[in-house]
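Could you join me in thinking about how sequence relates to backbone shape in a protein? Would you write everything just below, so we can both look at the same thing?
***
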Amino acid sequence: MEFDDIFLKTIDSTQDYAKKNVSSFDKKKITCISAKEQTKGRGRFNREWLTEKDNNLSVTFCFQLKSKTLHLTSISHIIALSFINCLRAKNLDPKIKWPNDVMLDNKKLSGVLCEIQTKNDISDVFLGIGINVNNSTEFLEKIDQRATSLKAFTNKTWDKDELLEILKKEFSKNLEMFNAKGFEPFHEEFENLLLYKGEKITFFDGQKQYIGCLHSISSDGKLNLYMPNKEMITFAAGDIINK
């Protein structure tokens, strides 16, 4: 798919901008909204996503898919995997903290927010990704969890525009495959990048905590948690909270 690019100087949230303006977007293209500064970025469960002017990539991809697209709710895995492939091409070794956090050295580098609005047989997908690119160590220390940036990890300044173009190309290719076959073609690669596989974790599904072993990822992108009573529980959403 082709891209329509919208570059914003300052915005509260690229995700909210996309949702407010979706009716004006070309439905045959991926609209890519990026901002130099995002003042009210948010992640999953309405958590705050801190950004530093000029040093973060704050992007929302907006596009349409058929509402019956196979494994539609796992589309967020595809943007995370696309970003990881970009980094692996740069000789980095990122991992995935399920469902879609990209980690370097067990520190959060990137987060994804996916929102889907369905009407009849069409779904508008709002896929936001925030990436710590050239953030300083001082900024990263303000974040309420262990975090890193590409600059902090590699000791060099990255070209954000170049990184975004590489990500767009990789995501477009993967989106085409996802649209045709769902998550299954990405299943093995995704699971091989998974942090904490085979380890004891505490998992929060939005209402309740569970303690078990992170067993695997299902072919449709869900997390399989092996419980002490030998029961397997499968989750479509939630957070690993003790790592």
